[in-house]
Amino acid sequence: MGIHVFYGNEPYSIDFYRKKYENMVVNKELNLMIFDAWSEDVSSYLMTYPIMEEKKVVIISCSLKDLGTAFNKYLKNPCQTTELVLILKDLDKRCNGV
Length: 98
Fold this sequence. Notes:
By secondary structure, this protein is α/β, with parallel strands linked by helices.
């Protein structure tokens, strides 16, 4: 299980790592999903088991503010057979006293 976050001004690097995770999956039709936003469909798919493989990969391209409470809920109980790759379009750059 893993949650991987990519953000930055280097589209080549982000694309390189996205393809790396896509290539982890042998049966791409069954165990690779790419979404443009977080939705209930994403939440449901994240909790399903891979088909005929040990892991599946879910790639989501969205902004950080679009993740919302469903993402926070998933973080509390992530699926051990899912590699979640987040490609963030923007990032909150405020320092919250850290």
